[in-house]
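Lesson 9: reading folded outputs for more than one chain in a single document. The general rule is that every protein is listed as its sequence immediately followed by its structure tokens, and records are never interleaved. Here is the first one.
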Amino acid sequence: MALSFLHPALRVFDRLSVGERLFVRARLLSAPLEEVARRVEGPRVLDVGCGHGVLCALLAVGFPDRLVVGIDPDPRKVDWARASVGRLPHTRFEAVTVDALAQREPASFDTVTVADVLYLLPSSGWPDFLRACHRSLKPGGQLLLKEAEDDGSWRVRKALLQEKVMVGLGRTRASGGLGFQPREVTLEALRGAGFRVKEVLKLSRGSTTPHVLFEARSV
């Protein structure tokens, strides 16, 4: 599931500092982003909560005919993304919320990807966030939502401790929440936001984090 340190998408980060390059590699090794990227459809893709642009690099490198837009509310991370994968002509990065972008560019994307973002939000904020993702999609568009789920295992406690450390170090910024929810809670939130869930794929095999991928369609 983990990506090789020699993956060609990593080359776009060579201009960043050693510390940020190591962070990017750790992100690729700890999360099944390649599986998310493999399922993306269409020529216009929006990555919400793009961070350094790791998933965006997987979506853009080798796909010159695909427009990849990455957004994140953290200007620091957007600067890192612009300095690396943002140098590719078919990418764009903005420090903006998905709600603001959806108001400005409604029904503009074939696919919206969201990787490890919901757990940083209070559950009360999930409906608005997911509805904004829905508004960003073209009719029948695809949502790929990767999260860690509360499956009751020891991996949940480990993942939560890991994320608390990252928040404490300033590597991750929580937005009023920090916790994982059972799968049923996420499914209910997706349906309430107007999505039809097509598939739920467990991606935790061989990992110490309970990864799960939700593939849904706007209806």
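And here is the second record, again sequence then tokens.
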Amino acid sequence: MRYYKMRRGEYLEERVPDLRAKVEEYFGEVTRTEGRDGVEMYVVEDTMVFDRVEVGVDERPNAKNRLAVHFEEKDVKTLQEEGLLDEAGKARKAKNDFLEEATGRDAKSRRESMKRDVEPDDEVDV
């Protein structure tokens, strides 16, 4: 599962007041909700390109909430056999558009932010 921060000074609840409706707009009908790593996730199953899409809000005490997402993409071979390779490009665009609308960050900014989150802190020997 991946977690995405909002732009400075912005909050997920303000950007996307109705997360369920936004998920359905981009990926299809939410089939159910379920908990994953302590986050209540909206689940969309078996779209043309994704086996499963999960989206939720990681509520954090004393910090801004983050968008939590998990995408399970269908195998490329399966997409090719079903003639859905063109749909894969549209699905990738929908995924990126959804993440940008929800977080206010484009793909490059989201990648850079994730890199900073996993970089080790510089330790200073005294």
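What the second record shows: The mean pLDDT is 87.
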